[in-house]
Design a protein that fits this description.
Blueprint: H1 3-7, E1 12-17, H2 23-31, E2 49-55, E3 58-64, H3 74-89, E4 92-98, H4 105-116, E5 121-126, H5 131-136, E6 148-150, H6 159-169, E7 188-193, H7 200-209, E8 214-215, E9 228-232, E10 235-240, H8 243-247, H9 250-253, H10 256-269, E11 272-278, H11 285-297, E12 300-306, H12 313-326, E13 335-337, H13 349-360, H14 366-379, E14 392-399, E15 404-409, H15 415-429, E16 437-442
Parallel strand pairs: 1-3, 1-4, 4-5, 5-6, 7-10, 7-11, 11-12, 12-13, 15-16
Antiparallel strand pairs: 2-3, 8-9, 9-10, 14-15
Helix pairs in contact: 10-11
Bound molecules: guanosine-5'-diphosphate (GDP) (2 copies).
């Protein structure tokens, strides 16, 4: 996986500082919320919490930490350690101090820890509720962390300037991924793929037989001449690279190599692939290769077992066992049992495509994602390895199409544990019909 994919386009900002300097108040201010996350009792300790934030149209994840002190004991020590981890895994740190108090010994002690993180640090001088206190904030240059930004988290003073500086200091956003943007209006792009003779042309003809089926490309949409616009389930779909199928030329002239290039091109051009399998025959290696092309390209997937009219009781039993064995890695792909010949279940295609695309584009709010990940990893922690168990600190969704997640952890996770998290993620949020990527960003 490339670095860009691992990092994802949403940067992470950690809010760190001594207890009671106003970190939670500041987080609430940034999130623009009235109701406070702030605990009633002062100094009450919390675990890190991550939220989605936006400023000037730019998204970032903001992580609130419980408070840092150099030689904290017991529960406070655990909280301080978590704050340090947040510093090590974030893209930027807001170090919050009190303008009313100035730099304390604790703040001086925090400086090496902040530098160790190697991330940009903005000094936020909070509780600068009036101009006199604002002026006072300049004494905080003494920390050696650059310009202090006076703000009043409580009243909103100065937070706009501070957030502008925050955006300037954030790493450049990763270039948007091909499908990571709002979808342009127009028909959704579908690849109809499968090895020769599974029934692709027959299915296309069946779909094209419904009234007003093959829509004219005049409607202002730019459609490649090799694509077909077909109405399925009351909606127009763009079936990519189907010219060969319609003219029934591809398979006669093409070598397998050529056919495979063509399949992979169609998958890349599509948002969702319908992989046709011949239900009357065993699942072959060529079927598997096509399925891998779809998952590796990160496209949504619908499995269509065609020629269901040829499937009898015995074959059905065999097929169920083949599916368990051969399609174990894609239990999330919806399966249709259809017949291009008789038309059986062809009407199920459109809902299946819509569902798969919805999963492909699904975004889980960061708050919800973190509530879930915290509950999961508390209920089932990572097994201990050499006296230590890596912990998942928080999670963000780095992108969609397909959904991509990043887990921020204290160390590398076992492959089995990562699979467990992925499985639970699907149990909780679904994603039927879409691949999902889960990457780990471990503290160095
Ligand atoms: P945290 O422990 O660092 O998260 O601090 P909190 O956000 O819980 O705030 C601690 C106390 O400081 C609360 O009573 C807040 O109301 C108060 N506080 C936070 N920001 C400001 C501010 O800008 N001005 C003033 N006067 N009080 C603030
Ligand atoms: P393609 O190479 O994937 O485009 O496959 P075709 O559409 O050319 O179909 C290959 C053969 O399977 C043809 O003889 C079709 O008539 C037959 N076929 C396609 N769909 C079905 C089906 O649902 N049931 C049955 N019994 N035969 C089918």
């Amino acid at each position: 996986m490339s670095d860009a994919e691992l990092d994802g386009p949403v940067p992470v900002v950690a809010v760190v500082g001594r207890p009671n300097v106003g970190k939670s108040t500041l987080v609430n201010r940034i999130l623009g919320r009235r109701q406070a996350v702030v605990e009633n009792q002062p100094g009450v300790t919390r675990d890190r919490v991550a939220y989605d934030a936006t400023w000037a149209g730019r998204r970032f994840t903001i992580v609130d930490t419980g408070g840092w002190a150099p030689d904290a004991k017991d529960r406070a020590a655990a909280i301080a350690a978590q704050a340090e981890i947040a510093v090590a895994t974030a893209d930027l740190v807001l170090y919050v101090v009190e303008a009313t108090v100035g730099a304390t010994d604790v703040d001086d002690a925090a400086v090496p820890m902040l530098r160790r993180g190697g991330r940009p640090v903005l000094v936020v001088a909070n509780k600068a509720d009036n101009p006199a206190l604002e002026a006072e904030a300049s004494t905080l240059w003494s920390l050696g962390l650059g310009e202090p930004y006076p703000v009043s988290a409580l009243h909103g003073r100065g937070t706009g300037d501070m957030l502008d500086a925050l955006l300037d200091a954030l790493p450049e956003p990763a270039p948007p991924e091909q499908f990571d943007q709002e979808q342009p209006a127009g028909p959704r792009r579908v690849a109809l793929v499968g090895r020769p003779n599974v029934g692709k042309s027959s299915l296309l003809n069946r779909l094209a037989r419904t009234p007003r089926a093959v829509v004219d490309s005049a409607a202002g949409t730019t459609v490649d001449p090799v694509d077909s616009l077909v109405e399925i389930g009351g909606e127009t779909w763009q079936l990519v690279d189907t010219a060969g199928l319609r003219r029934r030329v591809g398979q006669a002239s093409g070598t397998e190599y050529y056919a495979s290039l063509r399949t992979s091109g169609a998958i890349d051009a599509a948002e969702v692939a319908v992989v046709l399998l011949d239900a009357s025959e065993p699942i072959t290696e060529q079927d598997q290769r096509i399925l891998s092309m779809v998952t590796e390209a990160g496209r949504a997937l619908v499995l269509a077992f065609n020629k269901w009219d040829l499937v009898d009781e015995d074959r059905r039993y065999q097929l169920a066992r083949e599916i368990d064995r051969e399609l174990r890695r894609i239990p999330w792909a919806p399966r249709l049992n259809l017949s291009a010949l008789t038309g059986r279940a062809v009407d199920k295609l459109a809902p299946a495509l819509r569902g798969a695309l919805a999963s492909w584009e699904q975004r889980i709010p960061t708050g919800q994602l973190n509530q879930w990940v915290t509950a999961l990893t508390q209920a089932t922690p990572h097994p201990v390895r050499r006296g230590k168990a890596p912990r998942v600190l928080f999670a963000t969704q780095a992108g969609v199409c397909p959904p991509r997640f990043v887990l921020f952890t204290t160390g590398p996770l076992d492959a089995a544990y990562l699979r467990f998290v992925e499985r639970k993620l699907r149990e909780e949020f679904g994603f039927e019909g879409s691949p999902v990527e889960v990457a780990v960003r471990a503290r160095e």
